[in-house]
Amino acid sequence: MYRLAYVSTAHSAVSSPDLQDILESAIRNNGESDVTGTLLFNGPNFLQILEGPEAAVSEVYDRICVDARHSHVVTILREKSTRRIFENTPMSLLALESEAGTLPNGLTASEELDLYLPSSLPAHLRQMLKSFNTRKI
């Protein structure tokens, strides 16, 4: 099992329908490739974790890197693992509030990120995802 995480900057014109299209495409394509994961969006940025066979994850990531809906893609994690964390989820999308920007109209922020994260999520990945939620409390 291979895991990859990246962050990127959304183009300012990313809309709620764009995000729905991203999610639907990811579910369809990842399901066919045996890739699972999660995608977080906070208005200006994406953070995504992909996991699965290394070749499949690399192929999905290569397609993501050339997607015109975002730029400045930076890999922040590559690791091997003995087990899958996002077992039953080809892809999930969580929207989070951010001090750096606003969410598109029609998109509701997930209030409690922990409620959406698998209980088996390792501490280093949990911290990475939680640190992406930059809303003041």
UniProtKB/TrEMBL annotation:
InterPro entries to which the protein is assigned, alphabetical: Acylphosphatase-like_dom_sf, BLUF_domain
BLUF domain segment(s): 1-92
Residues annotated as signal peptide: none
Protein's recorded name: BLUF domain-containing protein
Gene3D superfamilies, per database record: 3.30.70.100
Matches recorded under Pfam families: BLUF
